[in-house]
Amino acid sequence: MAESVSIQCPRCRTKITFDPPDKQRSPQEHRTFFGIVKVAFDNWPERHPYKPENVEALRSWLLIQVGHCDEMHVPGIEAADVRDWVSIAKFTSGTSATFRAKKSGDGITFLRARSLALKSLEDRERFHDVAQRVYGEIQHVTGIDVDRYVRGEPQHADRVA
């Protein structure tokens, strides 16, 4: 893997550090990822326990499934329905982010998908790792072969689970 490169502006002496092109994530990889998530949404099995409302909700769910998420454990909380706590988290955060919550130990653990924005996940290897884990989850749930999708072959869900 190539190391970051630093140069100094000859005029103002400002040090500039950047990643060489082989380390940077490409816009094509980014578009491919979101295209695959859209294909998964369009082919999501009706009988699957998770029923995404939209592509963004599915993307968040997939990222949480593969561990690309932030977690916050709140001890000492009891709730009859964890969904109430998810609603509270959405309201207090002021966002429409998809949260998940689960009872754990003596309280509740909240999970929120991390961003895939270029600024937050610039390293190509890190993005590729997350994307591959998401593609594996998509293939497991829907039967969609991501490699076939990338080659431009038609895709449809092979599973009804």
Report on this model:
The chain has 161 residues and is α+β, with helices and mostly antiparallel strands. The chain is 39% helix and 17% strand. The protein has five helices and five strands. The chain has helices at residues 27-42, 55-65, 82-93, 124-142, 146-150, and strands at 5-8, 15-18, 69-75, 99-104, 107-113. A three-stranded antiparallel β-sheet has the order 3-5-4. It has a two-stranded antiparallel sheet with strand order 1-2. Strand 1 and strand 2 form a beta hairpin. The chain starts with a strand and ends in an 11-residue tail after the last helix. The model has no long low-confidence stretch (mean pLDDT 76).
Helix content: 25-40%
Mean pLDDT, rounded to whole units?
76
- Uncertain regions: pLDDT < 50 for 5+ in a row? none
- The global form is flat
Total beta strands: 5
How many DSSP H or I helices?
Answer: 5
> Major sheet, described briefly?
3 strands, antiparallel
What's the N-to-C terminus distance? 40 Å
Percentage of residues in DSSP E strands = 15-25%
Q: Indicate the radius of gyration in whole angstroms.
A: 19 Å
Strand order of the largest sheet: 3-5-4
Q: Return the string of H and E elements.
A: EEHHEHEEHH
